[in-house]
Design brief:
106 residues; alpha+beta; five-stranded mixed sheet
Length: 106
């Protein structure tokens, strides 16, 4: 059984993308920590029908299309560069609170 490589990054735009691209080899788990102020924007984008009194807790799992959705947010556009390579690898993506993105390649 092969151990999963786990790597954590702090979001710094293109610099983070450039560091991630060579690590897209299964099995791996990549975590990108985002600045705290992205939590609200991510919550609103990914939960458009949520009530205003609902706690803004993120725990959303999906595929690469989740990256397409969040890469439309101001400041996260560089994430779009991961969509094509991750699509070929059948990656799983999660967006969590505190704001972070987890990418898993099995």
């Amino acid at each position: 059984m092969t151990d999963t490589d786990e790597t954590a990054f702090t979001w710094q735009g293109k610099q983070t993308i450039n560091a991630i691209l060579p690590r897209l080899v299964a099995p791996t788990r990549l975590e990108i920590a985002l600045p705290e102020d992205y939590n609200h924007a991510l919550f609103v984008r990914l939960n458009p029908d949520a009530g205003t009194a609902q706690p803004e807790k993120l725990n959303i799992e999906g595929d690469v299309m989740l990256l397409r959705e969040i890469s439309s947010l101001n400041g996260l556009e560089e994430l779009a560069a991961l969509i094509e390579p991750l699509s070929r690898l059948a990656a799983r993506v999660a967006v969590l609170s505190p704001p972070r993105i987890v990418i898993v390649l099995d």
